[in-house]
Design a protein that fits this description.
By secondary structure, the chain is an alpha/beta fold. The protein has 13 helices and 9 strands. The longest helix has 27 residues, at 199-225.
Length: 383
């Protein structure tokens, strides 16, 4: 009799449907609540967090704040009605003019464009979990998503303050704003509630996502090697820096954890960082073992071990760049990123390699020349 009851129970309910990737981050019921919530009603500019010391998540709007306001309308009333738990971090609509000092991450909703939802990743200097989270929720909302490297489309320049920015570009159709507002709402809420039930799944997504992004870099490396498939120094620099970008992204997970960070979690992230270095040889680009950029012998390209440090806070001045830098169509972004990599630890060669990997080769003397100009302006010291 018991076996018959068990059999009938199994046949009645059947096996559980597998979760979607987004449902591994936020529970299905919670995700549906956010997705289906109305965007009508009074304006909501802030969803107050429960912990004032946990920091904030910024939902940033440019010329049009409507999709950002829709995102918070999906969250605010649901939190007030206890349909979803109150996040630890405050979620706030912010304009591009300036961030709050305790902002952990920013999600910028750009003007609608094209026919496909786009997620534009942040700059390499501030590679963060925010890109991964937004891509997961974007694919849940749209299916087909164009996830791409950084391009300047009106984002605020907050990276110099260590704030990573992920950009959502809605398609120019009737549902674009609604889908973008859901992606922004779900991403902001997930980041605002970390650590949460989806933390473990996010670590797995970070590993899988790192391999996917490094595959993109690998294709670029194969193209740069040409028909003979010979890896130049610039190819090795690019791919090595791409690995370090993904390692920074993994480490950024710890910024959302209580301090001090649990030693076991820290050890696991170190293992994840080490694990992705296997692509250095598995891609077939080189048989030499992976070595961090700062420990690498740079060879004929020369080396400048001088350390660059800022003399103050705030934006750096922008002296006239060396002529060789003007070859870049986005020279302002290149110069800005050069400044973002200044941390008092990286050498001129380290920064040159990082920026060359992200935007294209820049000769070491050109970068050194630009730093000399900044030093002459009193903005940095070189030692």
């Amino acid at each position: 009799m018991k076996l018959l009851v068990l059999l009938l129970t199994i046949l009645q309910f059947g096996p559980r449907a597998p979760l979607t990737p987004a449902e591994t981050l936020l529970a299905p019921e919670l995700l549906r609540t956010i997705e289906r919530n109305s965007v009508e009603g009074p304006s909501v500019r802030i969803v107050q967090g429960s912990d004032a010391n946990a920091g904030e998540i910024a939902v940033v709007c440019g010329e049009n704040c409507e999709p950002a306001e829709w995102a918070l309308r999906k969250l605010g009333p649901a939190v007030a009605a206890r349909q979803i738990p109150q996040p630890a971090r405050t979620i706030r609509i912010v304009t591009v003019e300036g961030p709050r000092a305790n902002t952990k991450a920013a999600i910028f909703i750009a003007a609608s464009s094209g026919q496909t939802m786009k997620v534009v990743r942040g700059l390499w200097s501030t590679a963060s979990i925010g890109d991964e989270v937004a891509e997961v929720f974007a694919r849940h909302a749209m299916g087909v998503v164009d996830a791409r490297a950084y391009e300047r489309i009106g984002q605020p320049r907050w990276e110099m303050s260590g704030i990573p920015i992920t950009t959502i570009v809605p398609p120019a159709d009737a549902s674009g704003f609604d889908r973008a507002s859901f992606i922004a709402a779900a991403s902001a809420y997930f980041l605002a509630t970390l650590p949460n039930a989806g933390s473990e799944a996010l670590l797995s997504h970070l590993t899988v996502g790192a391999h996917a992004r490094l595959a993109e870099d690998g294709r670029k490396a194969v193209a740069q090697m040409g028909a003979q498939q010979r890896a130049s120094a610039d190819v090795l620099i690019m791919f090595g820096q791409a690995i370090e970008r993904e390692q920074r992204r993994m480490r950024s997970f710890e910024k959302f954890m209580p301090t001090p960070v649990d030693p076991m979690l820290h050890s696991r992230i170190l293992d994840m960082e080490k694990g992705i270095t296997s692509v250095w040889t598995s891609m077939g680009i080189t048989s030499s073992p992976f070595v961090p950029a700062a420990e690498r012998i740079r060879g004929r390209g020369g080396e400048d071990r001088r350390i660059v440090s800022r003399t103050g806070t705030g934006p750096l001045p922008t002296p006239e760049p060396p002529t060789a830098m003007l070859k870049f169509p986005n020279v302002d972004v290149v110069i800005y990123e050069v400044g973002n990599f200044i941390d008092g630890k990286r050498s001129i060669s380290d920064i040159r390699d990082a920026v060359s990997a992200e935007f294209g080769p820049i000769a070491l003397p050109v970068v050194a020349d630009y730093f000399e100009r900044l030093a002459k302006a009193g903005a940095i010291t070189i030692r």
